[in-house]
Automatic annotation (TrEMBL):
Protein name per its UniProtKB record: pre-crRNA processing endonuclease
Family to which this protein belongs: Belongs to the CRISPR-associated protein Cas5 family. Subtype I-C/Dvulg subfamily.
Functional summary from the UniProt entry: CRISPR (clustered regularly interspaced short palindromic repeat) is an adaptive immune system that provides protection against mobile genetic elements (viruses, transposable elements and conjugative plasmids). CRISPR clusters contain spacers, sequences complementary to antecedent mobile elements, and target invading nucleic acids. CRISPR clusters are transcribed and processed into CRISPR RNA (crRNA).
Superkingdom of source: Bacteria
Native source organism of the sequence: Bifidobacterium apousia
InterPro entries to which the protein is assigned, alphabetical: CRISPR-assoc_prot_Cas5, CRISPR-assoc_prot_Cas5_N, CRISPR-assoc_prot_Cas5d
NCBIfam families: cas_Cas5d, CRISPR_cas5
Keyword set includes Magnesium: no
One MF annotation (Gene Ontology) recorded for this entry: RNA binding
UniProtKB keywords: Antiviral defense, Endonuclease, Hydrolase, Nuclease, RNA-binding
GO biological process: defense response to virus; maintenance of CRISPR repeat elements
One Pfam assignment: Cas_Cas5d
EC code(s) of this entry: 3.1.-.-
Keyword Nuclease attributed: yes
Length: 218
């Protein structure tokens, strides 16, 4: 059973992992980011979202911004020492760790996510695909979510709604072929202690990113 969720926003940042200093976005939303949006709207331990297609509705446009980022995080040992000894200074100072970095981000993004889900062994006896589809559709229609979905970073929130089937099938913004190079597909969590990124060769065909049968590699 397929769902179609229309998502849009003024900015997006799907960071390319090979860019170590300045953040640079992929040209298009990644399948893992699309999965994260669906999970924000509806998630259940008895199901796993599978992204089929991402329809790019608006032309791909970039802009550059400068963002304040924290270059370090507080250590777990410091947190534990604060808990164990309340007399210690509990303030967390970040001003000295703030760095201003340039980011190349997408603007005026608009997609339709087409996806389905697989049931797994954690589904209860009364859980059915029809039940989950109904719950997802109701939540999406009412604008409900577990946490606000975002485009790559929480600074760039997502507006969403169910795709209006009366409009027919969503169509991409352009015709022809566009090679997007290697893109992050998702993370492999088979070893929870050491998750591994998986990449695939992405391309747009008539403005559509097809993720139904990706040839992934680590």
């Amino acid at each position: 059973m397929t769902v179609q969720l229309e998502v849009w926003g003024p900015y997006a940042l799907f960071t390319r992992p090979e860019m170590k200093v300045e953040r640079v976005s992929y040209d298009v939303m990644t399948p893992s980011a699309a999965r994260g949006i669906l999970e924000a709207v509806f998630w259940h331990p008895g199901m796993v979202w599978r992204i089929d297609r991402i329809v790019v509705m608006n032309p791909i446009r970039f802009t550059s911004v400068r963002r304040n980022e924290v270059s370090s995080v507080i250590s777990a040992d410091t947190i534990r020492s604060m808990i164990n000894d309340p007399s210690k200074d509990s303030a967390i100072y970040t001003s000295s760790d703030i760095q201003q970095r340039a980011s190349t981000i997408l603007r005026d993004v608009h997609y339709v996510i087409e996806a389905h889900f697989d049931m797994n062994s954690k589904a209860a006896a009364g859980d059915t695909p029809a039940k989950f589809i109904s719950m997802f559709n109701r939540r999406a229609q009412n604008g409900q979510y577990y946490h606000h979905p975002y485009f790559g970073t929480r600074e760039f929130p997502v507006d969403f709604r169910l795709w209006d089937v009366d409009k027919g099938q969503p169509k991409g913004f352009e015709n022809g072929h566009r090679d997007l190079g290697y893109m992050l597909y998702d993370m492999d969590y088979r070893d929870p202690a050491d998750p591994q990124p998986m990449f695939f060769r992405a391309e747009l065909i008539n403005g559509v990113l097809d993720a139904t049968d990706p040839k992934v590699s680590s």
